[in-house]
Design brief:
Elements: E1 12-17, H1 24-34, E2 40-44, H2 57-60, H3 73-84, E3 89-95, E4 100-108, E5 113-117, H4 125-129, E6 133-138, H5 141-155, H6 160-179, E7 188-191, H7 197-215
Parallel strand pairs: 1-5, 1-6, 2-5, 6-7
Antiparallel strand pairs: 3-4
Helix pairs in contact: 1-7, 5-6
Length: 216
């Protein structure tokens, strides 16, 4: 882990990246359970997809949500900077159905711990520079595929054939080209995703220690 962890307003910013189905969400949930209640806010990278309302409806289905160009990186970096400076933000709400940014927003107040979570949360240099700790959640390709299969078939009503086709055409090549390389920027790699309770416990202990030191 890197030694320089200094933030404004006694804030600690964590970036958590990893492939689709790697267990990021579970790691985040278990980490929040172990940290001071009410002092953690999660900023999902998925909320910062570019607004595609200017794209013809028939073309929106071709948007590659696993490519870096799909994200509004400047807005995400700006919002993290605002939180770091003690300012609240209006987090966007993105609709996968219409591929557009909604008129409504989510009001987010600064907290002691800010978690930026997403498949490429560690990709952009400016965003990484704002983070105090960078984590990559790792998992075998087979495990990720199984989790994606369960989620998309059960929760999203897709057929197994459609899920496998999307995995081969989009998820796998995008993971290898853009997501896996993010691992090199991580201070900590968590293998086995949310099943790695030992790593999550160590992580929570480290963050608590940093919070105590920030208050001293």
């Amino acid at each position: 882990m890197h030694p320089e962890y200094k933030t404004s307003f006694s804030m600690f910013i964590i970036g958590i990246a990893g492939g689709t189905g790697s267990g990021k969400t579970t790691v985040v949930r278990k980490l929040i359970e172990r940290l001071p209640k009410g002092e953690v806010v999660v900023i999902p990278q998925d909320s910062y997809y570019k607004d595609s309302s200017n794209v013809p409806v028939e073309e929106r289905q071709n948007i590659n949500f696993d490519h870096p160009d799909a994200f509004d990186w400047p807005l995400l970096a700006k919002h993290i900077e605002m939180l770091k400076n003690g300012e609240p933000i209006e987090q966007p709400i993105y609709s996968y159905i219409t591929c557009t940014r909604q008129k409504e927003t989510i009001h987010i107040e600064p907290k002691e711990v800010i978690i930026v979570e997403g498949i490429m949360a560690l990709r952009e240099y400016k965003l990484r520079q704002q983070m105090d700790l960078k984590i990559f959640v790792d998992a075998d390709a087979d495990d990720r595929l199984i989790r994606v299969m369960k989620r998309d078939v059960i929760e999203r009503g897709r057929t197994a054939e459609a899920v496998i086709d999307r995995y081969q055409r989009v998820l796998k090549p995008m993971h290898e080209q853009f997501i896996e390389p993010c691992k090199r920027y991580a201070d900590l790699v968590v293998p086995q995703g949310g099943h790695n309770n030992a790593a999550i416990n160590m992580l929570a202990k480290f963050v608590k220690q940093q919070l105590r030191e920030n208050k001293e």
